[in-house]
Automatic annotation (TrEMBL):
Keywords: Membrane, Transmembrane, Transmembrane helix
Membrane-spanning parts: 20-43, 64-83, 89-107, 145-162, 168-187
GO cellular component: membrane
This protein's name: Small-conductance mechanosensitive channel
Keyword Membrane: yes
Organism: Rhizobium laguerreae
Length: 366
């Protein structure tokens, strides 16, 4: 390019430096756009027979790669153009930072596409979604951690393009001990939740869509961020808890190993009620219900009280919502049956009046 300019000037054609630079930049931009078009035509044909990830990646990165190729072309143009050394260095430095940001953008896009394609094979609305909840939880937590790493690495790379940072980097690190301790203490809650999020992703005491009993509230895990967990309660309220809570405090996870649950119905009846009849009615109710998963139905007398006996009914369903609805259905139909067929078996308060005190009261009245 410089030889071309020298030939022009030798031939008597003189161009100002700014015009010559503009011509060079226009030329390299044209070459960059042409090269980008050829490259993506080849890539599009190459990935036609590939899986969804590669096709999506080429499609989503088209504009970003165009900008990266233009940045590389302009950097070359700034090198060969008749700019001053300071101007050329400034332009190339700016383009280098821009290129680093574009690379981080590409990495973030590739990560997002891969995780989206990966999660398509798992359905949270399935009957038994234990495996889906496991992978979705791990993926979303790791996605946030990877995003943070990409941002940190990109910022570090941009800073390292400055000579002052490279030259004094060692001394800055050596003198940052006390400042690091102060910052670490100030950011202790944030770092605590960040490491708790990584621990949750690995050990998985909770997952997306898990049914939890926390602080006396029942709800489902709606979202897990890098610092907190959102629980959607049964009445649509939201309970927000820090990630560290689930590492440091006990809680109930109703769907830790499976989505299926056993529901309990307690009823208190008189000793005169035939338990076998109650057991048969509960089995009839369960078999007629579309909520029952055909696994567990049981009736047992679990305690004797002074006036009633305690009967426990167990029924199972495929998930916590269906279990709750099945328990309500069993309660309604069982009490309706007992009220119609054995009304005397319902709990009553009994009182026995002695005849002697009554006779004494009649005599006193006479």
């Amino acid at each position: 390019m410089t030889e071309f300019l020298d030939d022009i000037r030798a031939g008597g054609i003189w161009l100002p430096d700014w015009l010559a630079s503009a011509v060079i930049f226009a030329a390299v931009i044209s070459v960059g756009l042409f090269a980008h078009r050829i490259l993506f035509r080849l890539l599009t044909r190459f990935v036609e027979s590939k899986d969804l990830f590669w096709r999506s990646l080429v499609s989503r990165l088209k504009r970003v790669v165009r900008l990266a190729m233009l940045a590389a072309a302009l950097s070359f143009g700034a090198t060969v153009s008749p700019l001053t050394e300071y101007q050329s260095a400034t332009v190339r430095h700016f383009l280098l930072i821009f290129f680093i940001i574009l690379v981080a953008w590409m990495a973030k896009t590739a990560k997002h596409i891969w995780m989206t394609v990966y999660l398509r094979q798992f359905k949270l609305d399935a009957e038994d979604n234990l495996l889906a909840r496991k992978h979705v939880t791990q993926t979303r937590i790791m996605e946030r951690v990877i995003n943070l790493l990409i941002v940190v690495i990109a910022i570090s790379a941009c800073m390292m393009t400055f000579d002052a940072v490279r030259q004094y980097g060692v001394s800055l690190l050596a003198s940052a001990g006390v400042a690091g301790i102060v910052v670490g203490l100030a950011l202790q809650p944030v770092l605590k939740n960040l490491f708790a999020g990584i621990q949750l992703a690995i050990t998985q005491p909770i997952r997306i869509d898990d049914a939890l009993l926390v602080e006396g509230e029942w709800g489902r895990v709606e979202e897990i961020t890098s610092t907190y967990v959102v629980l959607q309660l049964w009445d649509w309220r939201r309970l927000i808890l820090p990630l560290s809570y689930f590492i440091e405090n006990p809680f109930q996870n109703w769907t830790r190993e499976s989505s299926a649950l056993i529901g309990t119905v307690m009823i208190y009846l008189d000793y005169s009620v035939p338990v076998d009849v109650v057991r048969g009615k509960v089995e009839e109710i369960a078999k007629a219900s579309t909520l029952w998963d055909r696994r567990v139905v049981n009736v047992a007398v679990t305690d004797f009280r002074e006036t009633v006996m305690e009967i426990r009914v167990l029924v199972s369903a495929s998930n916590s919502n269906r279990t709750f609805d099945l328990r309500c259905e069993v309660r309604e139909k069982l009490i309706d049956f007992i009220r119609r067929e054995y009304p005397e078996a319902l709990p009553r308060m009994r009182a026995v009046m002695s005849e002697a005190p009554a006779r004494d009261r009649r005599q006193a009245a006479e």
